[in-house]
Amino acid sequence: MTTNPPVHTVYYDGACPLCRSEMSTLMRDNRAGQLRFVDISVPGFDAAALGVTQAALMARLHVQRPDGGWLIGVPAVQAAYAATGHHRIAAALALPPVARLARPAYDWLATHRYRLPRWLLKAVHLHAGSCAPDGACRTH
Question: Organism's domain of life (predicted)?
Answer without folding.
Answer: Bacteria
